[in-house]
Amino acid sequence: MSRRAFLLATGAVAGSAVLSACGSKGGDSAAPSGEVEVFSWWTEGAENAGLQALLADLQLNQPNITFVNRAVAGGAGGNAKAELAKRLDANNPPDSFQGHAGAELSDYIRAGKLEDLNALYDEQKWTDVFPEQLLPLISSDGKFYSVPVNIHRANMLWSNPKVLRAAGADPAPKTFEAFLGNLQKVKRAGGTVPLVVADSWTLKHLLETVMLATLGDQAWTALWSKGADWSAPEVRQALENFHQVLTYTNASSPAASWDEATTMVGSGKAAYQVMGDWAEGSFKVTQNLQTHTDYTWAPVPGTAGMFQFLSDSFTLPKGAKHRDAALAWLRECGSKTGQLGFNGAKGSIPTLTNLNSEDRALFGQYLKWSMDEWKRCRIVGSLAHGVVANNAWSTAIDGALDTFVKSRQVPPFQGALVAAARQHAV
Ligand code: GAL
Predict the structure, then answer these.
(1) Which atom of ligand 1 is nearest to 75's Cα?
(2) In the chain, at which end, N or C, are there fewer CB atoms within 10 A of the end residue's CB?
(3) Do you know which InterPro entries this protein is assigned to (predicted)?
């Protein structure tokens, strides 16, 4: 089967362009065989479709490798990371595991859990093709520790145009204030959840986008440095805005998971959802809906021109039992054919800067737009997906947020965030 036929057959990509250039898989002439056990949290329909597209390409390139899928269900990896921590503590690592580029990966590096991948980076010449913004987030002291497979955008607003039209509301309000006005219209119209939320990390995801909308990109980024002023009035305003927006959500009886919430938007039970662009994978691949007719998107109001990003990457843990097979898997993660199939299905963009117009033509409308946005927007990191805060800091914020969602008291919430920054910023 040709590469193009393969990519189209997996349903991983859209469009009709011929895929001319293959990814370089160089240096794997030794053809490893046997199992490779890989840990991730990709179990939702489009997440799994992305993973399967990557695996199908791995199968073409490395037919002697058997992929052992150790995916643990639970959006944003909460459950997976807890299980992984137990295995790392017991010195029984999988052969490779998913980790977000940025502070989350730094935790694993600092704990001495990962092998450096410089030899692989040299072999594959990845520093020539991975985006320069990403390289510092997967490296430490000049050594690379993971292979990024995608770039996702967190600050996205997804909506159901039919529901909004019926309520006289706008799918793309420009400012936060306009967003509140539109939420009010949907609430008044009745019958739907204005802004749907799910389990606790989705509230943290909403919080980070409201903070970005209120503070702007520079002040948001500055918050994650040691000594930053979390007691500032601007932070207070951001938390007040979050407080207001929460009143339009189903936070008191949330959906079970991010994808159940996305399905509520698709089916018209909810009007808006703030979610990363894996939601596009759910609308298109899992729910089989039509862009702009059944669902549509815009940057979270007040964040146009900003791209709050995250990147999934895969590692080589020290003590991996099938090291050669793990290296072959990592080559696949960084390859062009692997990334084209994977990202088209999952709803993310490749980490490769050497895509040509034929590669680009394989992607749907949202992802083409997202590729352009990545180039023209100001890039900032995500909190809920591991870029800006280490695990201890992030967990302290979870605690503060949990209490706030119950109490709805902004001053103690801000106080807890000030304390968390003081204790955990590095
Ligand atoms: C993010 C992850 C994405 C997506 C999402 C929902 O943390 O980076 O790839 O899977 O969680 O599970």
Answers:
(1) 12
(2) N
(3) Bact_solute-bd_prot1, SBP, TAT_signal
Ligand 1 atom with minimal separation from the 258 CA: 6
* Averaged pLDDT for residues 249-262: 98
Q: For residue 346, which atom of ligand 1 is closest to its CA?
A: 9
**Residue 426 half-sphere exposure, CB side, CA atoms within 13 Å?**
13
Question: Is pLDDT above 60 for 26?
Answer: no
| 166 Cα: distance to centroid of ligand 1 (angstroms) | 32
The span from the CA of 334 to the CA of 253, in Å, is 40
Specify the CATH superfamily of domain 153-308+379-424. Answer: Periplasmic binding protein-like II (3.40.190.10)
Closest CA to 177 of 239, 236, 245: 245
Q: Using a 6 Å CB cutoff, which residues line ligand 1?
A: 41-42, 47, 75-77, 100, 152, 258, 276, 278, 310, 312, 385
Name the residue of 40, 146, 260, 312 whose CB sits within 8 Å of the most ligand 1 atoms, as the mutation to test its pocket.
312
Ligand 1 pocket test, candidate residues 342, 385, 391, 398, most atoms within 8 A of CB: 385
Tokens found for residue 309: 């990003």
Chain-wide mean pLDDT for the chain? Answer: 93
Q: Where are the domains of the chain?
A: 3-152+310-375, 153-308+379-424
Query: How remote is the CA of residue 75 from the centroid of ligand 1, in Å?
Result: 6
Q: Which helix (H) or strand (E) holds 178?
A: helix 176-189
The residues that bridge with 38 in the sheet, in sequence order, are 69, 96
Instruction: Evaluate whether 393 touches 420 at the Cβ level (below 8 Å).
Output: yes
**pLDDT tens track for 344-362:** 999 999 999 999 999 999 9
CA 31 / ligand 1 centre spacing (Å): 31
User: Using one digit for the tens of pLDDT, what is the confidence trace for 32-67?
Assistant: 999 999 999 999 999 999 999 999 999 999 999 999
**pTM attached to this predicted model:** 0.94
Residue owning the nearest CA to atom 3 of ligand 1? 76
What CATH number belongs to 3-152+310-375? 3.40.190.10
When pLDDT is cut at 50, 70 and 90, the band that residue 30 belongs to is: low
